[in-house]
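Hi, here's the filled form for the chain we discussed.

Project: internal
Contact: R.S.
Residues: 272
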Amino acid sequence: MLVIVGVFFLVVANIVILFISSNRVPSYGIGRFALYLVAPIQDVVSSTIKVARNTWQAYFMLVSTAQQNARLKKELQQANARNSQWYETELSNIRLRRLLDFKISLESPSVAAEVIGMDPSPWYRAVIINKGSNDGVRKGLPVGIPEGIAGQVIDVSAAYAKVMLITDRNSAVDALVQRTRARGIIKGESTSSCVFQYALRKDEVNIGDRIVASGLDGVFPRGMPIGEVSGVVRRAAGIFQEVSVTPYVDFEKIEEVLVLLTPLQDQLVNPQ
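And the returned structure, exactly as it came back:
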């Protein structure tokens, strides 16, 4: 504040002296003295004003730059949001095209549904879909995606249905090893894997073998993919071997499914 007041008085004094010296005093004697006295003051005042002007200009430039940066940042965020939406739409279109191809490969009517929720219980493996009895969905129908069997409808309302996944402990699918025709039952473990129970120890089952539905349970179409053998244990005693199976369906990423609508024993799909 004191600096501003001092500059003000210097400017006023400078103006008064210049006015007196330029109008009433000749350019010699007191005029020269006035010039000697005023010139340094003028220099200081001019420099001060120049610095102040440059400071204000720099300040306004910084404010303008900050505003421009904020605007550009907002536009970039909006562009990224649009790109993310377009990418999600593209991924959804890819999934729906594959689901449509799967639907066409079936010899029976079916309805596509979106997964809208998952059972929060750690003891059950189930999802909620947005199709129900109004769409022809009923209890007991099989549910799948292009990769393979997903599960079975266990509860239905007018607009929604609950699907028990094949990884649930209560799930059971009559299945066989596609290569050797060894029979067994796919049971869930409430995890991301299943077991192939009741496979006879004498039957050949190897890691990497493909497990498909046998169709003998009257629920899942014969030949529909289930998973791949990931582990085999043959003990010295007993009539069965222990077989672990990794499902083809990634249940943590499942978003759309296909519910098969016609009498189950009449359905048939081509093995992939």
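Let me know if anything looks off before we file it.
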